[in-house]
Write a sequence for this structure.
């Protein structure tokens, strides 16, 4: 294949594999991967950080293998809680008391008093009857959906919904439909197809690649009209939206309309894990059928103790939420003033959309990194090919000086290239 032809391909094109052994990838995948631009792009994935994923950290740069101080606008540490002194202290105390691991699945022996108390507090926080904790957010989404849906049911997912919801739906055997992103006419057409079936509509509070909010009032109205249930993934909105930080459900005053509310513990909480809150009867049922809960080790005790403290710190007043909102507003204003495209972002998840030219995107990623700014390039198939982008995460931890330095680098490196 000639070199230019190779650049037309993406990971989506190598799914089928007709090599002789399952341990061999397809031959043309190897050829594609060895193209200098493709392998350069892959270099950005998995660059090791040399200190905490805070807003100022050090990275072992993929561009020139140098250890470099950077402003980190890529991590999910939206409230800076992973390094909060009270969180660290709580985790340290639990480490001394319980050791490093839970040493069992929640069903068998991995449930410690810490897990029980944290799940109780999360259910209370989300104003639901009960809660189940999972050792990863991905496993939580997958496990909740796989645990309650059955063959003959319908799962209806926004086309920008997270992979973990799709995989949960696939494993469940339910008939899966996608509707156009935030498009109510498309949702309605899909619900027509599911008439007469047990149906679950799955949406996200804040969409993870675009940072826009679900049109929750309209989605709720349609769910009511068709008599179907609603599942809300608040991975990127819990602790950040709503008067008390409960998420986008609270923001729209519609929490009571959400049948199941899901959250990750890896983002604003600053740890790892996932949780699902709902009525006590379905949570009891899930305990019997949710594979990642039954068959995967529980969250480490020190992490749970840190998470419990993170919940306390983030909800005792609105300081962190307010700071995050102020930082987001500042960054949004200045990025827009530079004429850059942030799509429909309404949150701390703010893409800078560059376009279909992935060579340019990777060159810019290298350029800003050399100046001391870390933004991860995101290309097809993670986002549509024509909307290759930097996915920027704003954090409450950013100081005025950090933001101004980051904006200067964006102005010097990205703006001239995009304008050209
Ligand atoms: C919307 C959404 N749901 C679920 C997950 C999975 O969460 P975790 O990374 O904690 O496993 C993610 C992760 O990025 C996400 O963006």
């Amino acid at each position: 294949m000639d070199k230019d032809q190779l650049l037309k391909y993406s990971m989506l094109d190598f799914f089928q594999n007709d090599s002789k052994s399952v341990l061999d990838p397809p031959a043309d995948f190897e050829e594609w991967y060895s193209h200098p631009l493709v392998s350069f792009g892959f270099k950005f994935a998995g660059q090791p950080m040399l200190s905490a994923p805070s807003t100022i950290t050090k990275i072992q740069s993929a561009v020139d293998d140098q250890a470099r101080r950077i402003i980190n606008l890529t991590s999910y540490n939206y409230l800076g809680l992973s390094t909060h002194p009270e969180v660290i202290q709580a985790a340290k105390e639990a480490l001394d008391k319980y050791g490093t691991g839970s040493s069992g699945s929640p069903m068998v022996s991995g449930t410690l008093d810490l897990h029980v108390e944290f799940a109780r507090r999360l259910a209370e926080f989300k104003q639901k009857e009960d809660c189940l904790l999972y050792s990863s957010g991905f496993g939580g989404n997958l496990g909740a959906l796989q645990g309650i849906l059955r063959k003959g049911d319908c799962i209806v997912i926004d086309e920008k919904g997270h992979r973990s919801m799709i995989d949960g739906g696939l494993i469940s055997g339910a008939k899966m439909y996608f509707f156009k992103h935030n498009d109510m006419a498309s949702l309605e057409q899909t619900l027509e197809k599911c008439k007469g079936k047990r149906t679950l509509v799955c949406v996200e509070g804040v969409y993870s690649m675009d940072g826009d909010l679900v049109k929750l009032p309209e989605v709720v109205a349609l769910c009511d009209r068709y008599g179907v249930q609603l599942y809300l993934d608040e991975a990127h909105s819990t602790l950040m939206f709503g008067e008390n930080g409960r998420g986008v459900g609270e923001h729209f005053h519609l929490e009571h309309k959400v049948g199941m509310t899901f959250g990750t513990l890896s983002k604003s909480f600053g740890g790892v894990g996932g949780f699902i809150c709902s009525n006590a009867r379905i949570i009891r049922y899930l305990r019997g059928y949710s594979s990642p809960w039954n068959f995967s080790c529980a969250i480490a005790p020190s992490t749970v103790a840190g998470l419990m403290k993170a919940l306390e710190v983030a909800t005792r007043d609105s300081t962190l939420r307010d700071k995050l909102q102020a930082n987001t507003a500042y960054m949004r204003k200045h990025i827009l003033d530079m004429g850059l495209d942030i799509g429909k972002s309404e949150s701390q998840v703010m893409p800078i959309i560059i376009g279909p030219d992935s060579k340019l995107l990777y060159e810019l990623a290298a350029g800003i990194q050399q100046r001391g700014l870390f933004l991860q390039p995101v290309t097809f198939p993670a986002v549509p090919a024509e909307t290759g982008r930097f996915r920027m995460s704003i954090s409450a931890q950013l100081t005025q000086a950090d933001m101004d330095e980051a904006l200067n680098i964006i102005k010097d490196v990205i703006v001239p290239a995009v304008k050209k």
